[in-house]
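W.,

You were right to be curious about this one. When I first looked at the sequence I had no strong expectations either way, so I just let the prediction run and decided to look at it fresh. Below is the sequence, 159 residues in total, followed by the output.
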Amino acid sequence: MTNLINNIPENNDFRKKGLALSEEFALLEGRRPRILVGEVADILAGSMNKICNTLADMGFDVDIAPKFKELKKLATQSIENDTDVILIYSDNCVSYLELLDFQNRVLPNQVDIMMSLFVRDPSCLSTLRKHLNQWVIFEAKDNESTMGYHLLRHLMSNS
């Protein structure tokens, strides 16, 4: 049987490993890992849905932030939702200064939160990686299952 959401067989190694990690997290924390997914600008709805559905299939409780123009609103929502991971999704480059400001708004209130970024535009990746060394950064070549697995692995290594 296949997962119709992203055409990855259910026995996919990353999916299996991700489910095992999310179950381990649930045993340790008493709840499933919670991720808040937000988008910086208008993106293809299908891409966002595919990522969110795959993360949910891997055991995440997925909260989807409404589209925002300012990261301040996303910071407030992450604090209110007691989020473990924030995934910011953007088709275009995002200002690392804006992301650092966002980080400074969130981390004082949620020291254990993991920041992650998915950027489809490869032209800004080296700059983002240079300045956002506390972030987990994904690019267009990363598929949803590997993203979910790596997020869970990082989350568990920090627990």
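Here's what jumped out at me. The mean pLDDT is 84. And, maybe more interesting for your project: Strands lie at 2-3, 8-9, 34-39, 61-64, 85-90, 114-119, 136-139.

Coffee later to discuss?

I.
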